[in-house]
Amino acid sequence: MEMIGNNFILGLVGEVSTLVSKGSRRSLLKHQASVTKLLDMIDMVRQHRSLTHQFLFNHQQEVVEKIAALDEEMTKAITKLASDRYVGNSIERIALKNKLSQLTSSYKNRSISNNLVVHGKVIRQLIFQVDSQILISLDKADKLELAGEYNDQWQAVMSGIEALTQYRLSIMAMNMNLKPALLAKQANVLYSKLVKVSDVYSDYHPDLNECMTQLERYLTEHKHTEEYQAKLFDLSSDISATLVDVYEAIIEKTFAKAINGGYSAE
After folding, report:
1. Which helix (H) or strand (E) holds 167?
2. Which domain does 40 fall in, by range?
C-alpha cells in the first residue's frame, strides 16, 4: 500500500509539473503572437517611412495611392494591436495607438528630416514594447536565465538603430551644404555598431556582412550629388531592414529556447 501511495503521489507531482510546463508554454505562445503583431507593425511603419520619404524627397505623386492603401492597412492593424491585452497596459496601448495614428496624417506637411525622426521614434517605441513583452514572457515562464544573452544582443541591435538614425539625418544634412565630415563621422560610428551586432549575434547573416561592405565602400567615395544622396538613403534602408531581420532572428531563437527548455530548435 505504501508503495502504491508513493507511486500515486509521484505520478500526481509529475502531472502538476506537466501542467505548469503546458501553462508556461501557452503563455510564451500568446506573448509570441503579440510580439509578431508588433514586429508586423514595425514592418508597416518602415514601409510608410520609405513611401513618404519618396514623396517628400522626389515629390513622386505615384506613391500617394500606395501611401493611402498602406494607411488603411495600418489603421486596421493599429485597432487590433490596441485591443491585445498582452501588449503592455491600457495606457501604453492608447499611447502607442495615438503615435501610430499620427503617422497616417499630415505627412505632406512634414520636412524630410522630421518625417525620418517621427517614424524613427515610433519604431523605437515599438521595439521597446517588443523587448518588454519578451522579458515579461521569460519571467512568467521562469526562463529569466535566457534574458542575459538576449539583452546583450538587443542592446547591440538598438545601438545600431540609434546610429542608423543619426547617419540618416547626416545624409539629409547634405542638402544644407554642411561639411561632409559629419556624414563620414556618422557612417564610421554606424559601421562600428554593425560590427558589434555581427560580433554579438554569432549566427551567420550574409545581408549584414553585405551592408557593411557597401557602407565601407561608400565611406571612401565622398560624393555629394543628389543621386549619390539617394543611393546612401537606399543603403540605409537596406541596413534598417537587415537590423530588423537580425532582431527577429534573435527573438525567434529566444522563444525557441524558452519553449524547448533552454535549447533552441535547430
Report:
1. helix 147-172
2. 23-110
- Per-residue model confidence (pLDDT) at position 177: 61
Burial 245-261 (b: 16+ CB within 10 A, else e): ebbbebbbbbbebbbee
Do 165 and 206 belong to one domain? yes
Residue in 135, 106, 133 with CA at minimum distance from that of residue 118: 106
Per the rule left: phi > 0, alpha: psi between -120 and 50, beta: everything else, 60 is beta
Asked whether residue 148 falls in the same domain as residue 106, the answer is no
| Burial of 197: CB neighbours in 10 Å, binned 0-12, 13-18, 19+ | buried
Cell numbers of 116, please?
A: 525620418
Please say which residue of 85, 110, 135 terminates a domain.
Answer: 110
Which of 106, 36, 113 is CA-nearest to residue 67?
A: 106
CB of 55 closer than 8 Å to CB of 67? yes
- Residues 150 and 211 reside in one and the same domain: yes
Same domain, 205 and 264: yes
State pLDDT tens for residues 39-64. 999 999 999 999 999 898 877 778 99
The predicted-structure confidence for 77-101, as pLDDT tens digits, reads as follows: 999 999 998 888 889 889 999 999 8
How many domains does the chain fold into? 2
Model confidence pLDDT, tens digit, residues 114-151: 998 899 999 999 999 999 999 998 988 888 999 999 99
- The single-letter code of the amino acid at 167 is Y
Residues 148 and 191 in one domain: yes
